[in-house]
Amino acid sequence: MFEGIREDIRCVFDRDPAARTTWEVITCYPGFHARLFHRAAHRLWSLRLKWLARFVSHLGRLVTGIEIHPGARIGRRFFIDHGMGVVIGETAEIRDDVTLYHGVTLGGTTWNKGKRHPTLDDNVVVGAGAKILGPIHIGVGAKVGSNAVVVRDVPARATAVGIPARIVEPGRDEERQRAAERLGFSAYGISSDMNDPTVKAIHALLDHMVNIDARIEAILARLEQAGIAGDGESTKKDDFDANYLNRIVD
Hints:
With 250 residues, the chain is α/β, with parallel strands linked by helices. The protein is built from seven helices and 15 strands. A six-stranded mixed sheet has the order 3-6-9-12-14-15. It has a five-stranded parallel sheet with strand order 1-4-7-10-13. Helix 3 packs antiparallel against helix 4 and helix 5 packs across helix 6.
C-alpha cells in the first residue's frame, strides 16, 4: 500500500509542472486525497462492509469534490488534476497511468445491474468536462478531448472529440491533408473539428478517396508483379475542378 502511495506522489510531479514539493502534494492536492479515500473505501467494499465503504467514499466526496464509488477498480499511478466534479461509477475500471482532469464523468447508461460503466486502459488521458458513458472500452494510450461525450469504444492511441464523440484515428488527418493537396483543394481552410455538415461530408469524401487510392495502388502493384503492363489509362488526368469545389464551400 505504501509503495502505491509513493507512486501516486511521484506521478503528480511527472504530470503537473506546478507541483513543487512532496509536502505540497500531500497537503494540497485533492486528487491525491481522493485516491487515499478510495483505497480505504475499496478495501472495506472488498470485505463486504458496503455501508461503511460508501460512508468513507462520501466523506472523500465532501473533502475533495471528487466522487469515486468504492466498487470502482483503479490501477497504479492514477492522477486526477484539479479534480472538482469528477464522478466515477461503481463498475468503472481504470488501469495504470491514467490521467483525468476536472469535471470528468465515467457514468452508466442503464439502471440494470452488472457492468454498466467504462473501462479505461493504460495511459489514457481524459480532458476536462468529458463524459464517458456505458460499458465501453477506451484503448491503450487513447485521448478524450475536453467536453466530449463518448458512447462507443475508442481504439488504442486514437483521439475522441465532439458531441457525440467522433474518432480521430492516428494519421487520418495527415492522410486527408495529403489527399486534398493532390486535388488542389484546400479542405483545411475550414477547421477540421467544426461540427458542420459540409465539413463532415468533405472529410468523408476525402477518407473514401484515400481508401480507394490505397486499393488502386495495391492492385497496380500486383499487376506489375504479374508482368501485366498498363495501357496508360491509369496515368490519365481526370477533369476534377478543384477551384469549383473550393468556391462552393466558402
